[in-house]
Structure formats: structure tokens, C-alpha cells
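Researcher: Structure prediction, please.
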Amino acid sequence: MRSSCLPILAFIACAASTVAMADTRSFRCKNNLVKLGDSKASALSICGEPVIKDQFCKKPDAQVSTPSANGSTTVINSACESVDEWTYNPGTGQFMTTLRFESGTLTAIKYGERVK
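Model: Predicted structure follows.
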């Protein structure tokens, strides 16, 4: 009897991990989903105003060109990339959710503390 339970437990564990992965690719607002790759305008029209908006500048990695004939190396510093983080409170019992936008595109969805 015990050996017949193992495939069932493996299936449940696999299904649970699949659900957890799917949760980080989309966020349900009202009756619609915001997905990775969506624009800020799309997220705003679907979810409305967040409870917290944070914006900062993420400095890109410096690009180093190949050394020239005289032995000098050029380092190219690009302008920073605009990053916005919008936090939503979906309601009691749900998790605070932060949407991260880089250059206006949704790149990450992070779940925080459960709302009490």
C-alpha cells in the first residue's frame, strides 16, 4: 500500500511546484492578468494605482572595448536604466505583490508578506 502512494505524492509535489512557477509569471488584478512583458500602461489600466510606487536608476554594466594599437583600453559607461517597482495590496489573506518594470516593461513579480 505504501508503494502505491509514492507516485501520487510525486505527482502532487510536481503539480505544486508547477503552480508556484506559474504564479511568478502573472498577477491577477480584478478579473484579468498582468503578465511578464506587459507595459506599465497595460498594468495600470488592468490593476489601477498601486499603494506604493518606487523608482530608481539601475546602472548598466560597463562595456570594455578591445585594447587599441597603442595599448589603451576604452570603458564605455551608458546612462542608467529606469526601474519602477509598484506594490499592490490585493486584500486580506493575499500576499503584497510588487511588479518590477525595467525600461517600461514588466520583468518580475515578487510576492511579499500576507495581508492581515
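Model: The chain has one domain: 27-114.
Researcher: Thanks, that helps.
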